[in-house]
Design a protein that fits this description.
A hairpin with a 2-residue loop joins strand 4 and strand 5. Helices cover 8% and strands 52% of the residues. The chain has an 18-stranded antiparallel β-barrel. A three-stranded mixed β-sheet has the order 10-14-13, with no helix packed on it. A two-stranded antiparallel sheet has the order 8-9. With 421 residues, the protein is mainly beta. The longest helix has 16 residues. The chain is built from four helices and 23 strands.
């Protein structure tokens, strides 16, 4: 993986040194800072975001020859980051892929790419591609919620249905809260912890046997888009415990089967999505150390309310399968989860000053977990190139082990200023 990054960086340098027809370079420079308002135990208690970022995007599309006829594109997105929190600097190859259209009914994309599908807004049912929730919770741009994957993506376009097949040979987990920038609930300690956590995450071994595969079949039926999904791989979060005494957790094997439907409804856009999570290492729900099988149901509705005002609501229901077997497997000291988890989201976006000023508010609320997460944000485009954003991440919960309740104490406000070119 590291060698791939070095080779791509060298290739990028050579391409810049020998510009060619069809070459385009864009990017931005950004400074970001986030101030902590909470009091939990983390490495630096007064801030969790302080960085400068330079992103360059290079796209090469030949204008003639066989590659031009086949729609060939080489794209690379690289970033140089100076991180004041980590007190270091590093180069990141965020995307680097080649795209080719061998025939009119086939597309092929190979390399590092950001993958996404499904109907949710910040909620994911059949999208099992990696996420960066630390970036999400500390105020980086929404672009950084999705992590890239080194993958092959094959798209086929046929009369009955179109098909996307994704093969990921190198497992890439979610970037979850581990106690450095944000504190969290550690079940081994039974309390909120920061950097003192002794939990050990066992990384997945790269092998052909561990290759992940994701499939989507989709087609339009009138004004509606119907999609069917399949996934074979691993949980993206450490949902299994390998050794309680050593406090070792890992990523259990997982299959997901699902479907979605999205289209016009009641003057807006409605959507429904369902996913069955087949926990391959605990299909009967009797192993307290591995995640139970469960079903996720997601319902969404968004509408333009006029006057550059938009609204959106979502309802996510998670149902644990074999709940009685799960309860029977618990031991003293285990945190007992509910059979059903309910999560509501609300979003309002307003554009002002000839659409140069955007005010948005996104709220997560779980009546079953009794916790809350608020994301207010204001963005102003000073010019076509300069943009400044100010926002916050506010957490609250009655219990210290729920998804957002454990983050109570990690409240923060942030600002970002970006120059695009």
């Amino acid at each position: 993986m590291a060698m791939m990054g070095v080779l791509l960086a060298v290739l990028f340098t050579l391409l810049l040194a020998h510009p060619a027809m069809g070459m385009e370079i864009h990017g931005f420079a950004e400074g970001a800072a986030g101030i902590r308002l909470g009091d939990e135990k983390v490495e630096k208690e007064d801030y969790n975001l302080l960085e400068g970022r330079l992103q360059l995007r290079y796209s090469y599309l030949p204008e003639e020859g066989i590659l031009a006829e086949r729609g060939f594109e080489f794209f690379i997105k690289t970033e140089a980051i100076g991180d004041g929190y980590e007190e270091d600097g590093h180069l990141v190859i965020r995307e680097a892929y080649a795209f080719l259209r061998p025939t009119e009914w086939m597309d092929l994309k190979v390399g590092r790419q950001v993958l996404t599908w499904g109907t949710g807004d910040y909620l994911f049912v059949n999208d099992l591609f990696p996420k960066d929730y630390v970036s999400f919770f500390i105020g980086r741009d929404d672009e950084y919620l999705k992590l890239p994957s080194d993958a092959l993506k094959l798209s086929l376009f046929t009369d009955p249905m179109d098909l996307d097949l994704v093969i990921i040979p190198f497992f890439e987990p979610d970037e979850t809260v581990k106690g450095q920038r944000l504190s969290f609930f550690d079940p081994f300690e039974g309390r909120i912890v920061g950097t003192e956590s002794q939990r050990k995450i066992i990384e997945q071994v790269d092998s052909l046997e561990n290759t992940e595969v994701a499939l989507r079949l989709y087609r339009n039926i009138g004004s509606f888009e119907l999609a069917l999904y399949g996934f074979r791989g691993f949980y993206k979060e450490p949902r299994g415990t390998k050794d309680e005494a050593k406090k070792e957790v890992y990523y259990p094997r997982l299959n997901v089967y699902g479907a979605s439907l999205r289209g016009p409804f009641a003057g807006g856009i409605g959507s429904v999505e369902i996913g069955y999570y087949d926990s391959r290492e605990d299909r009967k729900g009797r192993n307290r150390l591995v995640e139970n099988p469960y079903i996720r149901y997601l319902f969404g509705y968004e509408r333009d309310l006029g006057g550059d005002l938009k609204g959106e609501v979502q309802y996510l229901l998670e149902e644990m399968i074999h709940y009685d077997a799960y309860r029977g497997s618990l031991r003293d000291g285990d945190v007992e989860r509910d059979r059903f988890r309910h999560l509501l989201t609300f979003k309002v976006t307003k554009l002002l000053k000839e659409q140069t000023l955007e005010v948005s508010f996104f709220a997560f609320y779980s009546p079953s977990d009794e916790d809350l997460y608020l994301r207010p944000r204001v963005s102003y485009s000073i010019t076509d190139r300069w943009k400044v954003s100010v926002g916050g991440n506010i957490f609250w919960g009655r219990k210290d082990y729920t998804e957002f309740g454990q983050l109570d104490g990690n409240d923060n406000i942030y600002t970002r200023i970006r120059y695009s070119f």
